[in-house]
UniProtKB/TrEMBL annotation:
GO terms for molecular function: alpha,alpha-trehalose-phosphate synthase (UDP-forming) activity. The chain holds residues 246 to 735 of 741 of the full protein. One of its GO terms (biological process) is trehalose biosynthetic process. The lineage of its organism: Bacteria, Pseudomonadati, Pseudomonadota, Betaproteobacteria, Burkholderiales. Belongs to the glycosyltransferase 20 family. Keywords: Membrane, Transmembrane, Transmembrane helix. This is Alpha,alpha-trehalose-phosphate synthase. It comes from Ramlibacter tataouinensis. It comes from the Bacteria.
Amino acid sequence: ALLRSQLSGDQVIVVSNREPYIHQRVDGRIEVQRPASGLVTAIEPVMRACSGTWVAHGSGSADRETVDRDDHVRLPPDDPAYHLRRIWLNPAEEQGYYYGFANEGLWPLCHVAHVRPVFREADWQHYREVNRRFADAVVQEARSDDPIVLVQDYHFALVPAMLRERLPRATILTFWHIPWPNPESFGICPWRREILQGMLGSTILGFHTRFHCKNFIETVDRYLEARIEHEHSTIAYGGAETLIESYPISIAWPEGESGSHWPPVDECRRRVFQHLGLPEGHKLAVGVDRFDYTKGILERMHAVERLLEKHPQWLGRFTFVQVAAPTRGQLDEYREFQERIHRVAQRINERFGATGRPVVRLLASHHGPEQVNELYRAANICMVTSLHDGMNLVCKEFVAARDDEQGVLVLSRFAGAAREMPEALIVNPYHVEETADALQRALEMPAAEQRERMASLRTTVREFNVYRWAGRMLTDAARWRLRRRIEERV
Ligand code: G6P
């Protein structure tokens, strides 16, 4: 309701690559899947609240069957609240724009997880064309000359300036969901100026943390002739001004939502333990990620191995379950990484095989929100050990799932979330020994200490939820719109 009143009838258009519901044809039936994407997790509840239009890439095998003549579909399927306008990319566009420039170029460039970015001229051309197509779609969807457009993520660095040109009065809020590196790291991108110029078409440019804002401002300072006002955190370039601000993203707090009537924790634990064949009293740690090299899954397994070396009393009494959602599997870097993780899991299980029960369970398939939630509620420990992460929402989901105020979060200091969640056991995932020690500490943590930490984490995530994230951006936008109206009057 608050979001609606902030918008006071203004039209909101979201642009993202990933769509919120993917329709697949399975055995003749259409199945709806929620993609594993922090971006979708965060934006979807906001769209429900403000009933806007969402422009995204249609990627499911049955997506085309669900749209009307204008390529629109009303979502969510069971309780329509907003429109989705799908953009259909041909295989060459998808290859060049999505797999190529976005995920082999910008993704490793911004994460600096020691995977070398690849920049191909042809990918860049596709990236520009696809950005143009999405900008065209926004212009078509706009019902007035000054809509509020929320541009999401590294897939669309050029869209803000393209929109600014065609809808000069639009309020363009761009949110970069991944980290922004320092100027030296970013500087290896052959099209660094074009990317920065594109982003500076935004009215407001948001990152998760002050640190990423600072990196961005320094990058602009290094490569463009722009006027930077450090006091107000604004950049003036090409006759327009952009506010650079941090907005830590979050999740919708489950209370009061239909999905929050979860089975009791004991029941979740019973079901999960039965499914995995674990005896009562066994300790369970979980990791839930896209199967991505930035998530620190390898380092996590090494820490589990080290724990069992140092503390063999856990042998046969401890299991680590890793849910790894398939992702970007067409890229060699991802395939090789995923194969490597399978090999390491197997090696660890063979090494400790005498206990008869595998130590590592690698569940490399798509899991729906209910299944993931059941795991969160069954676990003693949740491991989030990203090598670098804009925010990371898994840690927030875990905390939201634990209304029993039990369970320990082991969290990487290189995830944006570490700044808001100091009550977790904070680790450097590159430091295997430290992570193994944190696991040991978590396994031995008394219930009272778990409760104290978890209760405090829950207060933070409940209060700084995703509506607060969107609300702060929209409040800043409303202030900017008001200022412009006043200026136009004089
Ligand atoms: C990250 C990105 C999102 C993306 C998600 C899933 O969270 O910031 O933009 O949607 O990963 O990746 P995918 O490539 O499957 O959309």
